[in-house]
Design goal:
Blueprint (H helix, E strand, L loop, with lengths): L23 H15 L4 E6 L6 H14 L3 E6 L10 H9 L4 H4 L9 H19 L5 E6 L6 H13 L5 E7 L1 H5 L4 H10 L1 E4 L5 H12 L5 H11 L3 H10 L20 H12 L3 H13 L2 E3 H7 L4 H13 L3 E3 L6 E4 L2 H9 L3 H18 L8 H10 L6 H17 L3 H17 L20 H10 L11 H10 L2 H9 L9 H18 L13 H5 L2
Parallel strand pairs: 1-4, 1-5, 2-3, 3-4
Antiparallel strand pairs: 6-8, 7-8
Helix pairs in contact: 1-2, 5-6, 6-8, 9-10, 9-11, 10-11, 13-15, 13-16, 14-17, 17-18, 18-19, 19-20, 19-21, 20-21, 20-22, 21-24, 22-23, 23-24
């Protein structure tokens, strides 16, 4: 996942193979945005809507038109399955323009205030985009923002204001329902206030007729077109799945429309399963493994996880491409993606729980071996799989990778992301006596201490879920019960993570929390040698 995904010249969303109909009003708004941006009035444009409604396709049409005008286009997609590095969509976009995100994130001395350091990173990225756009206007396309880490959303807000007087257009997409469930829902509310937003709705009955004609080469009678509209809610992705089998299916005689919450009609899931079932069994098995890897996956991971030969695996992936289940990245052969997240979800949901756990364990081990010489960019991805596999895997390894991923996120100034990793590690510690049967935590031959600096960074940013504390005193007591008796007092003394209020008050709270955490690591009166604090336990 962390390999180079885009060229240094132009990167744009993958080109779908389905007809593009409707969206006349939306395209006019986007073209107007291009015109304004060309006059050095850069701004943020957000597309929202349910899964499959056409957000990515509309952004592709925008990118295509911008490219025809001679603009530069850079794209980044958020990783929906978890485990992505902090700032992942920005890393991809900067890389697509020939930049080096980590160089932009290079840190000064530790004495500099962390909020100042992060401001410098945001400003460095904004200046990079503005400088890049001086020769030719620039469009930055960020897909699936509902899956973005909190730090990426904060950067987006900063960049959108910093490019106001530059020929830079930033276009993002997100699912409204998932955005409301995001760990930082207020971030989307802030973005909407400063952005031009368009909420995509389903196609009309007339547009469904046009879509049907584009796919089949013929006209749909008005009555079946109306039924297709009722069944799919005018959702282009669902519509495409139904139209594929409309000549052989009785769905037009009945069925349910898309419900108000945006869930997939079971009939559409049935069609997805049917299309997958038409593939050879070894192709289906390979796709199930790929579904656990994520929306995007590379051949090397599947090769080490599936029990088929390299030649056969290439064949079955080609068949899956021909069937329209996955696509191969034309710029990077042997990198694939499911045509839609709903295809991956259907495959993943149909796996038994025990199969999922075992596949996450295997994939985590494969990633660890595959990237053993360059683990840092892949720590989050490895930690994600090992943590999900913890009930049947090595809890110690999962906790270790989560803490290392947290430390790396903190080093990249993604304090919120660091807090997520640390809390997942603590969650595994707290649950291992509540039903886990995986390999228990064990003492390392050379115990390493969890750097308090990382915990301090997470505390500075706060665990920003509605401004509430991430670990309440009862939560800390649960963590303490999961530790050995000798560690309970140390764990109970660790302070709750406090929200960042901003300015000096926030820093004062952070420094006070760090001092209390440091005191918690000291031995209790009469305890003799120092008992490890909870931070030390994390990496043992």
């Amino acid at each position: 996942m962390s390999e180079k995904l885009a060229s240094t010249e132009v990167s744009s969303p993958r080109t779908p193979g389905r007809p593009f109909v409707g969206r006349v009003t939306e395209l006019e708004e986007l073209r107007a945005a291009l015109d304004l941006t060309a006059a050095r009035r850069g701004f943020l444009f957000l597309l929202s809507g349910e899964p499959g409604i056409g957000k990515t396709r509309l952004m592709h049409e925008l990118a295509r038109e911008a490219g025809e005008r001679g603009w530069r286009v850079a794209a980044g997609r958020c990783w929906e399955e978890g485990g992505a590095p902090a700032y992942w969509p920005w890393i991809q976009a900067v890389r697509a323009l020939g930049g080096d995100f980590e160089r932009l994130a290079a840190r000064p001395g530790e004495s500099v205030d962390p909020q100042t350091v992060r401001f410098r990173l945001f400003n460095a990225v904004a200046e990079f985009l503005v400088d890049t756009a001086q020769a030719r206007p620039l469009v930055v396309v960020l897909d699936d923002l509902h899956a973005a880490d909190a730090a990426s959303l904060v950067m987006l807000r900063f960049v959108s204001e910093a490019v106001a007087d530059a020929p830079v257009l930033v276009v993002g997409s997100y699912r409204e329902r998932e955005a409301r469930l995001h760990e930082r829902p207020e971030s989307f509310a802030e973005l909407v206030r400063v952005a031009t937003r368009v909420s995509l709705q389903g196609l009309s009955v007339d547009e469904v007729e046009a879509y049907f004609a584009g796919v089949t080469g013929g006209d749909a009678p008005r009555s079946p077109a109306a039924r297709l509209h009722v069944l799919t809610g005018g959702n282009p992705f669902f519509l495409g799945e139904v139209v594929r089998l409309v000549a052989h299916d009785t769905l037009l005689d009945g069925g349910a429309a898309l419900d108000p919450m945006g869930r997939v009609p079971e009939e559409v899931r049935t069609l997805l399963r049917r299309r997958i079932a038409d593939l050879p069994q070894d192709a289906v098995e390979a796709l199930r493994v790929a579904a656990v890897v994520g929306r995007e996956f590379n051949f090397r991971v599947l090769e080490r996880t599936c029990r088929v030969s390299v030649a056969r695996l290439l064949d079955v992936l080609a068949e899956a491409c021909d069937a329209g289940v996955i696509t191969e990245d034309p710029a990077f052969p042997r990198r694939y993606a499911f045509v839609h997240e709903l295809v991956r979800e259907t495959l993943y949901d149909d796996l038994a729980a025990a199969q999922r756990l075992e596949l996450h364990r295997m994939i985590g081990a494969v990633l660890e071996e595959l990237y053993r010489n360059d683990l840092d960019p892949h720590l989050s991805e490895i930690a994600h799989h090992l943590a999900l596999a913890a009930p049947v895997g090595d809890v110690s390894a999962a906790v270790g990778y989560l803490v290392r991923a947290g430390d790396r996120a903190a080093s990249l100034l993604a304090y919120e992301e660091a807090g997520v990793h640390y809390e997942r590690a603590l969650g595994l510690l707290g649950r291992r006596r509540g039903g886990f049967h995986g390999t228990p935590l064990r003492a390392s031959p050379a115990p390493r201490r969890c750097p308090l600096a990382g915990r301090r960074h997470a505390r500075r940013a706060g665990r920003l879920r509605g401004g509430h504390r991430a670990r309440s005193p009862p939560g800390r007591r649960r963590d303490a019960r999961a530790c050995s008796p000798r560690l309970r007092d140390r764990a109970r003394r660790l302070p709750a993570v406090r929200p960042l209020r901003g300015g000096r008050d926030g820093d004062r709270a952070a420094r006070g929390g760090a001092r209390r955490a440091s005191r918690a690591r000291q031995p209790a009166p009469g305890a003799g040698a120092r008992t490890p604090g909870r931070g030390d336990v994390l990496l043992q």
